[in-house]
Amino acid sequence: MTEKTSSVAASALGPAHSGEGRRDLIAVEILVAIFVIVEITIVWLMAPQFVREFTRWQSLRYQQKGNYQAAIQKLEKLIQSPEGAKNPTYLAELGNAYLNIGNYDKSIEYYKRAQEYRTNVPSDDDDKPREYADFNTLIGLGYLRKGDLDTAETYLKKGIEANSKDKAAHFYLGEIEFQRGNYLKAVDYFKFVASDPAFRDKVRDYYRRIEEELFKEVK
Asked: What are the TPR repeat spans here (predicted)?
């Protein structure tokens, strides 16, 4: 083979078969090290999000099981971050958990914070703004359970202003009027939800009690 032919053959084989090409190859050990560093970086960056999502999952599980004290511990962790502190869902769930364990002051506090940040919700997949909840009815419920009927009434009526079809607000206002002895006003509120399965049995019980109160002097 002539010198010229050897030169052409070397060119056809490419740089990988030349001494210079072999020197440019990255050692396997270096590639492995780079891969490990990238993986560690990804895990480090994703760790806070994973912890938040797992804590969120735990809080939901506890709420579903009715273990509100354990749910509170998880939700309190979630609102420690700047984002969580303004998350209306976390705040409202904390309000609900405290309501269920009978801590009405804490319940009202978190419901009010949820109302303050109620518009703090992400856009949907089409980048359109989502509808946001109104928490006035829940605030009113907190005051109702606390026994502050006048303040409860104020917030419940705000709930109806935000949503005229708010069945819970109508029902709780009926309870307030019943406690005040305004039975006919109570009936006006109760009839709004009388056919709803979620309220039907409670409304029937109130109707029975109202009938007893209205006709007890006749007997």
From this structure: 88-121
